[in-house]
Amino acid sequence: MLRWSRSRESGPAQEDSMNKPAVSLTSAFGQICLVAAGIGASTMLAHAQPSMSRGQQLLQVNSTECLNRALQALRNVGFSASTAGNFAQGFKEISGAYIMCNDAPGGGTWVNIVVASGTNDSGVPGQLRQLLQAQMNQPGSGTVTGGTPSSGSMVGTWTLKCCTGEFQWTMTIRSQNGTAFSGVLSAEASGGDINGQVRGGSVEFVRSGTWGKQTWRGQIVNDRGVLRMSGTWTGDYQERFPGRNEWSAEKR
C-alpha cells in the first residue's frame, strides 16, 4: 500500500522538426529526458528501451491560452495535467508528456510536444503526440492564472488518484478558512490527514499520518463548473514510485 509499504488559428503541425526559431526547450526537454530514463528503468525487465516523439506547431494565441489548451489536451487524452512555468506535463500508464509554450517572433506561440514511453515501439508515443497536437487546436477551458476557482469553496468530497492510477482515495475537505483548507483521506493505502493552501490557480497540501509525511503540489482549474486538481507529490516513499509520483483529483 502507498505507505506505502507499498492556424490562421493553427499552422501545420510538424513531426520531429528542429529547424524552427529557438524555443527555449532546454529545461523542459531535459526533464522529459529524465522521464524517459525513469520509464526505461521501470521496464528493464521487459528489455524495452524508452522511445520518444516530438512535434511542433504554431498557434495564433498568447501563451496563457496555450497553457490552458495544454492542460485540456492532456486531460482529454487521458493524462494527468499540471503546469510549471511555460509548460504543462502529464503522465498516463507507461508514458509521460510535456507541452511547451514559447512566444513566437512576430506573434503567436510555438508549441512543442514531447512524449516518452516505456516501450521500444515508437508508434506508442507517436500516436499520443499526434492526439495531443490535434487537441491543441481546440480552445482551452481551464484556468491557469487568476483568483480562486469561480465555484468557490474547496469543501466537499473529491476523488483522488495517484501513481498512474494504482491508488485511489476519497478525499473529504471538511473546512476552508480563506486560502487554508483541511480534511482527511479515506483509509485505503494508509489514508492520512490533509492540510493545505490554495492560491489562485495553485494548490499545495501536506498528507501526513503515522507512516510519515508527503507534500502534494499542483494546479487547480474550473473545467466547465467542475473543479479539478493535478500535480506531483514528494516525500516519504517517493523512491518506490520512480517517474510515477503524479496525482489528480476531481470534486464530486
Topology readout:
Layout: E1 14-15, H1 26-42, E2 51-59, H2 63-76, E3 82-84, E4 87-92, E5 95-103, E6 109-117, H3 123-135, E7 156-162, E8 167-177, E9 180-185, E10 192-199, E11 202-209, E12 212-223, E13 226-235, E14 246-251
In short:
The chain has 252 residues and is of the alpha+beta class.
Describe the structure.
The chain is an alpha+beta fold. The protein folds into 2 domains: 14-135, TATA-Binding Protein, CATH 3.30.310; 156-251, Beta Barrel (Lipocalin), CATH 2.40.128.30. Helix content is 17%, strand content 42%. It is built from 3 helices and 14 strands. It has helices at residues 26-42, 63-76, 123-135, and strands at 14-15, 51-59, 82-84, 87-92, 95-103, 109-117, 156-162, 167-177, 180-185, 192-199, 202-209, 212-223, 226-235, 246-251. The strands form 2 sheets. Strands 7-8-9-10-11-12-13-14 form an 8-stranded antiparallel beta barrel. The protein has a 6-stranded antiparallel sheet with strand order 1-2-6-5-4-3. α2 (63-76) packs across α3. It is globular, with a radius of gyration of 18 Å.
